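Exercise 3.2. Students should predict the tertiary structure of the chain below and write it as structure tokens, then compare their answer with the key that follows.

Predict this chain's 3D structure.
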Amino acid sequence: MYGQALTLKKLAEQFASLPGIGRKSAWKLAFYILTLDKNRVKNFADTLLAARQNICRCEICQNLTDKNVCEICSNSARDCDIICVVEQPRDIILFEKSRSFNGLYHVLHGLISPLDGVGPDKLAIKELIKRVGGGAISEVILATSPTVEGEATAMYISKLLKPFNITTSRLAYGVPVGGELQYADEMTISKAIENRSRL
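Answer key:
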């Protein structure tokens, strides 16, 4: 946009660099920030910095947390012998909202995708195998999306888990093949947990 202050342009550019934010939305957010009082802007900025500085990966499940061990892993009421493996931390929110799963999680932080340069070594697969190797796990649910990458990742992990003689299952999806897990609603997630299939 012509005629705008350089600082305002830079602010809009920062918003536009975020995923899912187009140029129009970026300018709208930039103008909105200018309508807020300085304390609200400072709180917003401080929260962004604190999140970046304090949030880390749980040393057990790799979920995002501000402690060494996340609340789910440290909850003694959870079913500790079953692990649901998900792609991203946001997927845990879906399962928790569905209230259909009371076990533990493991976050891969991505999927195997050779075209994008993402191999198994770039995911939290070693940490999962180490957890299962501890001997307290009876089942692993592979809850990756039903995309080519999701299926390839699930098959790769299931082969690594075979020697441990545990149940390895895959979600029975109610979302279309090629779809993304993050767009499924709570009922779909709930049914997928109930109707999971053994690999």
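Discussion points: The domain at 6-54 is CATH 1.10.8.420 (Helicase, Ruva Protein; domain 3). The chain has a mean pLDDT of 90.
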